[in-house]
Amino acid sequence: xxxxxxxxxxxxxxxxxxxxxxxxxxxxxxxxxxxxxxxxxxxxxxxxxxxxxxxxxxxxxxxxxxxxxxxxxxxxxxxxxxxxxxxxxxxxxxxxxxxxxxxxxxxxxxxxxxxxxxxxxxxxxxxxxxxxxxxxxxxxxxxxxxxxxxxxxxxxxxxxxxxxxxxxxxxxxxxxxxxxxxxxxxxxxxxxxxxxxxxxxxxxxxxxxxxxxxxxxxxxx
Length: 221
Ligand code: DX5
Ligand code: ZN
Known about the structure:
Layout: E1 11-14, H1 24-33, E2 38-44, H2 56-65, E3 69-75, H3 83-88, E4 93-97, H4 104-113, E5 117-122, E6 140-144, H5 160-173, E7 178-182, H6 187-196, E8 200-203, H7 205-209, H8 213-218
Parallel strand pairs: 1-8, 2-3, 3-4, 4-5, 5-6, 6-7, 7-8
Helix pairs in contact: 1-2, 5-6
């Protein structure tokens, strides 16, 4: 389906990891109706993180159900080898982990060659020093606010300084980078992250636990 990324300063991307795995297409439609800016899809390989989730065909099924922007978060080793499949299935942005490959630049280049936006993710414990050289080389940096692998974990406040430092560097260099946060995002932690400079918020359990998806999404803006 054609993808439309709605323009709003803060983008809210619910994580379908907290959705109904028996009805991903239905949940994708519900998120679209509820005003989400896109859908975050967590791909885990059981090696880079101790959990297994979805593969490219599930991304294809979600893509056929919605016009929303599909934000694919790869928590897998050898991300390079799977980019083409995720691109063909309709991913709009492909984010992979700095810690999962030695080919960061090649992987970014290949994602872009496939016509997609490239995101680079950093675990909470990865030092800030690793980040600056990539700010001008990718479309988005994902600063994990929990240890990747599972939904429903507690937000790690120690990442807030990293968000602030990253945004400050971007502003100083005139780089209009998207900074995404993912993990433990609620109405309260969203505020802290946005104040520090994040503009793309992923939220799984918080959004899906609300009585109304629309109100849950709105409360994060
Ligand atoms: C965790 C995933 C997240 C997860 C967030 O490794 O990357 O996208 O779905 O879930 P919550 O919002 O419940 O922390
Ligand atoms: Zn994620």
